[in-house]
Amino acid sequence: MTKLRVQELARAKGFNISQLQLRVGIAMGTMRRYWYGTRDGKAEGEPLQEVDLSILTTIAQVLEVKLTDLIDDADWLTRLLAGPQHHTSSRAEASI
User: Fold this and answer.
1) Is the whole-model pTM more than 0.85?
2) What angle separates helix 53-63 from helix 28-36, to the nearest 10 degrees?
């Protein structure tokens, strides 16, 4: 399972969850899912099974980091983007 580093990098840049949510322009429930990397947006919960690359890209831009910096296993994203494309949207399964 791939772990997101949104919370870690946001805090390092001086953002709390509310500040980042406002800057990214997404609903707080969505921000909580990416912040904690869980399906229900709670600190202890089932891991996210899919991510929206456009949301991750926007978060990376706000934090002034590379998209791959937000993903603990950056090789996962490389494999995903280089492999066969089964998805027709910007959503990708995080369990690859």
Assistant:
1) no
2) 80
Structural domain boundaries in the chain: 6-80+87-93
CA distance 58 to 40: 21
Q: Which residues contact residue 30 at a Cβ distance below 8 angstroms, ignoring those fewer than 6 apart?
A: 41, 55
38-67 confidence digits (pLDDT tens): 999 999 888 888 889 999 999 999 999 999
Confirm if 62 and 10 have CB atoms less than 8 A apart: no
- Tens digit of each residue's pLDDT (9 = 90 or more) over 13-41: 999 999 999 999 999 999 999 999 999 99
Encoding tokens for residue 69? 């910096």
CATH H superfamily, domain 6-80+87-93: lambda repressor-like DNA-binding domains (1.10.260.40)
- What distance in Å separates the CA atoms of residue 65 and residue 40, rounded to the nearest whole number? 25
